[in-house]
Amino acid sequence: MKQRPGNTAGSPEKVKPYDASRPKTEQVEEMFDSIAPAYDFMNRAMTMGIDKIWRAKAVAMVRGGAPRRILDVATGTGDLAIKLARAVPEASVTGIDLSEGMLEIGRQKVASAGLADRIALTKADCLDLPFADGSFDAVTVAYGVRNFENLAAGYREMARVLSPGGMLCVVELSVPQGRIVNPLYRLYSGKIIPAVGRPISRDSAAYSYLPASIAAMPQGERMLDIMRGAGLSDAALRALTFGVCTIYTAFKRD
Predict the structure, then answer these.
(1) DSSP character string of 206-225
(2) Which residues of 52-161 form beta strands (DSSP E)?
(3) Range name among 44-58, 161-175, 220-234 with the lowest pLDDT average
(4) DSSP codes, 117-128
(5) pTM, whole model, 2 decimals?
(6) What are the distances in angstroms from CA 216 to CA 50, 190, 210?
């Protein structure tokens, strides 16, 4: 049965790439394996390269805490992991992702960057992280939380592996609310991105899932409340580029 997103605002778990019957985690893994060869190109094309600026701002926030152990959840092809390793040369970076196809591309990029001794990319589920409590000084996620099977459980698991005082930094696409920007965004995300993404990625559903999953995500204060509910404190947000992207941060206190 084909997925019909419908009115799913605030319920990202209900938005799935392919159909309503199978678990979201299974479908997300399948989707990213499918689009892995086109993923980096589409990221640059869809955002006109601005995604690099968004990642750089997140890296600057994380670097301020001088972390020595960083976990990058939903690392994909490793863009954020590589930026973090370069910005914080004292740190080791572990990246996890569901998609082996994305990870394989990421490992090639890590090797080309000469960072294989400091970045380890491995397959794992964000809802069952294979790490002990308090293993990391910082946890990051870029454009990944909307793909979680269970958003609140994902935040609790990331909070679990944070050390006391550690930062969680989430970069996520969001829906701008301005009267001028919002209609333009909806046209671009709902019509143009799927039309361009389908022939390039050769996955007819992946780039329809993208705007639907963004629209379904809790945003602003609602997202901060979920972070607080996971046991994190000092939750804050920073909207970027007219609200098209938002960086959320929070800390694990003693």
Answers:
(1) HHHHHHHHHHHS--THHHHH
(2) 69-73, 92-97, 119-123, 136-142
(3) 44-58
(4) TTEEEEE--TTS
(5) 0.92
(6) 22, 13, 10
